[in-house]
Design brief:
CATH architecture: 3-Layer(aba) Sandwich
Number of helices: 11
Distance between the termini: 48 Å
Keywords: Heme biosynthesis, Oxidoreductase, Porphyrin biosynthesis
Order of helices and strands: EEHHEEEHEEEHHEEEHHHHHH
InterPro entries: Coprogen_oxidase_aer (IPR001260), Coprogen_oxidase_aer_sf (IPR036406), Coprogen_oxidase_CS (IPR018375)
Helix content: 25-40%
Low-confidence stretches: 1-16
Pathway: Porphyrin-containing compound metabolism; protoporphyrin-IX biosynthesis; protoporphyrinogen-IX from coproporphyrinogen-III (O2 route): step 1/1
Subunit structure: Homodimer.
Structural class: alpha+beta
CATH class: Alpha Beta
Radius of gyration: 20 Å
Organism: Dufourea novaeangliae
Largest sheet: 7 strands, antiparallel
Length: 345
């Protein structure tokens, strides 16, 4: 079923926030959202808007008959989400954009994982709140790169009533054929978003992205990077939120021009087979290393269809495949083994 816009407005302080461009009704009851003016509300509205804006930008590039399927779901433990998936399009073979706004109690495995990252977690049950938006876009053409982004906010409540909070996320690009102008445009757009808040952010989070999206058993990065950060709880909650907001607003200008540029490029059988092989590496990273995927799969009441929406419709694994030396495929492989500084900083 295709859902249109939701004719609602949310009052916050003296501002009227228009939510008519959301893909579905917010997860939190609209009357509750009207009452609240806290970070939970701000983040829910941000992820809803990001989802709506990005889905409509993608649909604008597709045939008029091709739209996102919208699946609004609830979670027995608390909260829910909105999963938007477009499949078998002319431009996008599979595009998934997911919002989740959930509450509950952390399982021991998640608590242990957070302690390993330096979080001071209490013994016993830990109530949590999480809101985030994530997307993975698998174009049909191997000339168009795949993009992934995820931005999230997390709260845990201690037994004494105090709250720990942090933000995380990032945006990264996975091309099948290397076009340096595309990669420079992508990184430049992200750097502009980072520089609004700190001149140190881009360099720091670009390296974090290269290190995080590394397929250890293959000895290569998943793609050509972008930015990535986690456990961000400084300089303060408001400034951290504004930084995340700038990052979400950079997604469309960083990616949509690349789709427009390459959606009519010619390609053949060999390019398609290479794309399927690279998608196989994408699947390997997501299922073996990705922290968000593992957290979702081990959270009670997890919705596996939404968690696994990042996987492509088609992928391929070929035994001991090596690209031909000097080929375009080999050029990309070398870059993936040794991340570059794309902006000559």
């Amino acid at each position: 079923m295709i859902c249109n816009t939701v004719g609602l407005t949310v009052l916050a302080a003296t501002n009227v926030l228009d939510v008519t461009k959301f893909m579905a009704e917010p997860i939190t009851n609209i009357n509750e959202l009207k009452k609240k003016n806290n970070m939970r509300k701000k983040m829910e509205l941000l992820v809803m808007k990001t989802q709506g804006d990005f889905c409509k930008a993608l649909e604008s590039l597709e045939d008029s008959a091709c739209h996102f399927k919208i699946d609004r779901w609830t979670r027995e433990e608390g909260g829910g989400g909105i999963t938007c998936v477009l499949q078998d399009g002319t431009v996008f073979e599979k595009a998934g954009v997911n919002v989740s706004v959930v509450t509950g109690t952390l399982p021991p495995s998640a608590t242990q994982q957070m302690r390993a990252r330096g979080k001071k977690m209490q013994e016993g049950p830990v109530p949590f709140f999480a809101a985030g938006v994530s997307a993975v876009i698998h174009p049909r053409s191997p000339m168009i790169p795949t993009i992934h982004f995820n931005y999230r906010y997390f709260e845990i409540e201690n037994q004494d009533g105090t709250i720990q909070w942090w933000f995380g996320g990032g945006t990264d690009l996975t091309p099948y054929y290397l076009n340096e102008d595309d990669v420079k445009h992508f990184h430049s757009t992200l750097k502009t978003a980072c520089d609004k808040h700190s001149l140190s952010y881009y360099t720091k989070y670009k390296k974090w992205c290269d290190d995080y999206f590394f397929i250890t058993h293959r000895g290569e990065c998943r793609g050509v990077g972008g930015i990535f950060f986690d456990d961000l709880d400084e300089p303060n909650q408001s400034d951290a939120f504004e930084f995340v907001k700038s990052c979400t607003e950079a997604v469309i200008p960083s990616y949509i021009p690349l789709v427009e540029k390459h959606k009519d490029d010619a390609y053949g059988y060999s390019e398609r087979q290479w794309q399927l092989l690279r998608r196989g590496r994408y699947v390997e990273f997501n299922l073996i290393y990705d922290r968000g995927t593992k957290f979702g799969l081990y959270t009670p009441g997890a919705r596996y269809e939404s968690i696994l929406m990042s996987l492509p419709l088609s992928a391929k694994w070929q035994y001991m495949h090596e690209p031909e030396p000097g080929s375009k495929e080999a050029i990309l492989t070398e870059v993936l083994k040794c991340p570059k500084n794309w902006l000559n900083l």
